[in-house]
Write a structure and sequence with these properties.
Number of helices: 3
Shape: globular
Strand order of the largest sheet: 6-10-9-18-19-20-21-32-29-28-25-26-39-38-35
Distance between the termini: 22 Å
Helix content: under 10%
Strand content: 35-45%
């Protein structure tokens, strides 16, 4: 079963349960095969709303401090904790909430808000502030937090003064240290003097961030395990965080995190610099308890409902609805690949084989309000997330999972890097990467990108299985004098009527071609433009399915 849970502003939580067939294809090799298996769960990532009413304290069960004990702290402290944790069998931690808090409804949970006057560092003139999330509703796990200053860490105990409760919740807030469910960091990201939300950690190993002018969209995770596998997905959790006190004259904040799950423990360090594109440098060390053969590094989770290349069974006034519209990859051979996202009828997994990737990420390329026509959701403001590996990640594949959904409240897109070789049990596996939240990677002069993909039936007079594809390219710079040559390849069916023409409306070209499926249910497509004068051009990839 697949349970997809997503929180969108002004919309209730919801879940989607479905049983689907898994189709797997290795897109770059041109070899496709399918196998039957069961998809699995994608965890929720909410963005609670914070405004201040009243608070009523009450007693609760006190929990012990396991990880964020007050004491000495250095750059290796979390690594030592993770190594020690992995040397022992996995333990399910039990930190029960008082009955009233454990059974909160969605509306009751939303009614517990952080008191902004109690924000960490609020009165210290620092470039960052921090607010915590209460436990309850879906967020039952106790998350420990410590504040780091110099070489010392101090456990941040739960206190009711940090929260206020409105009129909806009848359960009184506790007095004892019940921990938190996560936290968020604020920064003067958009306007001086206004501390806007910058980054959130809450739910399993999920987190998300914003660049300047962005609104929350896709999310990231610390690690993906067994995604879309028949045995069921495993969701590691960040059990504890250590947040370094920022300097007043630096635009940097550092967060350390301890990851744990039945298969692996890990130590993470996030170095966060807000800006037009908010950059997060991630350094991680994994300590597997078992061999990790189905692991995803630098995973991202997003939503794609429909666009001009996928509006089957769509009844929506908006032309497009998505947090991301494509997967962009710069592979180790220097090729730039653009794969438009889809909302398939059956769950699909694609693996793009590579060696030492330069970068990959889920991109929101369409930035025009006219493409979405949604005054509330403002999909044109959703950030892209670009992953740039540090060092040589070796052989493996960028894996893209696309899950059918009927609603925008569900995250149905997952991408990550899967190493070719399993990570052995008992080993120490270090990797690092840079995340850029905001715009996609900068386009160089004369670079040619795919700006739009659309498809529909090829016969305007009557219904037909033959499909028409229209791919628009945009040139960054002056248009060349000569038309490029277009090459379209397909793993099945027949491609015909390939036409390339100038497109003055976007300073680029329009490629059009028809595809006759010939009874095929899945066809991998690839289009390339070749110019007389060498220049960087994105290669267009697409998976057509019934």
């Amino acid at each position: 079963m697949v349970s997809l849970l997503r929180c969108q502003s002004s919309k209730p939580y919801s879940s989607l349960i479905c049983s689907l067939a898994l189709g797997v294809a290795f897109a770059l090799s041109g070899t496709a095969y399918a196998e039957e298996t069961k998809p699995t769960e994608i965890a929720p990532v909410p963005a609670p709303v914070v405004t201040p009413p009243k608070v009523t304290p009450a007693p609760a069960t006190k929990n012990q401090v396991r990880f964020t004990k007050t004491g000495a702290f250095d750059s290796d402290s979390v690594v030592k904790l993770a190594r020690k944790l992995a040397a022992k069998p996995y333990t399910v931690l039990k930190d029960p909430l008082p009955a009233g808090l454990a059974k909160l409804t969605y509306d009751e949970y939303r009614d517990i808000r952080f008191n902004p006057t109690a924000s960490i560092w609020r009165d210290q003139g620092l470039p960052f502030q921090m607010q915590m999330f209460h436990r309850g509703f879906y967020f039952q796990d106790l998350i420990e937090i410590a504040m780091v200053e110099g070489n010392n860490a101090t456990h941040l105990a739960y206190e009711p003064k940090y929260f206020t409760a409105g009129d909806v919740i009848t359960q009184a807030l506790p007095n004892d240290d019940i921990g938190y469910s996560g936290f968020r960091i604020h920064n003067q990201l958009n306007n001086n003097g206004v501390f806007d939300e910058l980054m959130v950690f809450q739910g399993a190993s999920y987190f998300r961030a914003l660049g300047k002018g962005n609104a929350y969209g896709l999310s990231a995770r610390g690690l993906a395990l067994k995604t879309a596998e028949a045995e069921g997905e495993e969701f590691p959790i960040f059990r504890a965080f250590w947040v370094e006190r920022p300097h007043y004259d630096s635009n940097l904040i550092v967060v350390h995190a301890l990851l744990d799950s039945p298969s692996v423990a890990g130590a993470y360090r996030f170095s966060v610099r807000p800006g037009d594109n908010t950059q997060i440098d991630v350094e991680a060390t994994l300590f597997p308890r078992v061999e990790l053969s189905k692991v995803g590094l630098a995973p991202s989770t997003s939503m794609f409902l429909h666009s001009l290349n996928g509006r089957h069974d769509t009844d929506d006034f908006r032309p497009e609805v998505h947090d991301s519209d494509g997967l962009l990859m710069f592979n180790g051979r220097g090729e730039h690949l653009w794969r438009p996202l889809a909302n398939p009828r059956q769950l699909q997994v694609s693996a793009f084989s590579d060696n030492s990737p330069q970068g990959f990420g889920l991109i929101q390329r369409e930035r025009s309000y006219a493409a979405y026509q949604d005054l509330e959701a403002q999909y044109e403001r959703r950030p892209s997330l670009w992953i740039e590996p540090v060092g040589n990640w070796g052989q493996g594949a960028v894996v893209l999972t696309e899950i059918p959904t009927e609603s925008e409240i569900h995250d149905n897109i997952v991408s990550f890097w899967k190493p070719r070789q399993p990570i052995p049990a008992g080993s120490e596996y270090h990797f690092a990467y840079r995340m850029s939240w905001g715009e996609e990677p900068g386009v160089k002069a004369n670079y040619v990108v795919v700006s739009r993909t659309a498809s529909g039936r090829a016969d305007i007079a009557k219904a037909t299985p033959r499909r028409l594809f229209v791919v628009d390219y945009q040139v960054n710079g002056a248009m060349p004098d000569e038309l490029p040559l277009a090459k379209v390849e397909a793993s099945g069916g027949i491609v015909s009527n390939v036409v390339i023409a100038p497109n003055a409306t976007n300073n680029g070209y329009r490629l059009a071609f028809e595809l006759e499926p010939e009874g095929k249910e899945l066809i991998e497509l690839r289009a390339e433009l070749k110019f007389p004068t060498p220049r960087q051009v994105e290669t267009w990839l697409y998976r057509w399915t019934l």
